[in-house]
Amino acid sequence: MKDLEIRDDRAAGRLEALTGGEVVGRIEYFVLESPERALVPVHTIVEPAHEGQGIAGSLAREVYAIAGREHSPVASLCPYVTRWAERHPDEARPADADLLTAAKEWLSAHPGRF
């Protein structure tokens, strides 16, 4: 999608995809600080009218790009991002099992967050 803009709203924990100023998709995530800093995608959502246009894939790619720029791993708890990463091993390194466990524990301890 050529007019897609991706914006990281770190304070809100959202990576948003916009087209024409309208949010058409997002990945909801949090930043894990321990046992190491990591980006943890939890949900990927694309508005129904915009499905099938590559928006979710663009968002997943950007999560890994941001993590790379920040020298942090991605510990995906989002089924879509996890499947995307499996299909793009050249762009998405798998997370360490201990990091995934810590991400799940954080999410469990913050039930109202997502």
Q: What strand order characterises the main sheet?
A: 1-2-3-4
Q: Which regions have little confidence, pLDDT < 50, spanning 5+ residues?
A: none
| Number of helical segments with 4 or more residues | 3
Estimate the global geometry from the Cα principal axes: globular
Order of helices and strands: EEEEHHH
Percent of residues in beta strands: 25-35%
* Average pLDDT score: 95
The span between the termini is 28 Å
The helical percent reads 25-40%
Radius of gyration, in Å, reads 14 Å
> What is the tally of beta strands?
4
Question: What class do helices, strands and sheet pairing give?
Answer: alpha+beta
Largest sheet report: 4 strands, antiparallel
Reconstruct the topology from this structure.
Blueprint: E1 5-9, E2 14-19, E3 22-32, E4 38-46, H1 55-69, H2 79-87, H3 97-109
Antiparallel strand pairs: 1-2, 2-3, 3-4
Helix pairs in contact: 1-2
Structure report:
The chain is an alpha+beta fold. It is built from three helices and four strands. A four-stranded antiparallel sheet has the order 1-2-3-4. A hairpin with a 5-residue loop joins strand 3 and strand 4. Helix 1 packs across helix 2. The longest helix is centred in the middle third of the chain and has 15 residues. It is globular. It starts with a strand and ends in a 5-residue tail after the last helix.
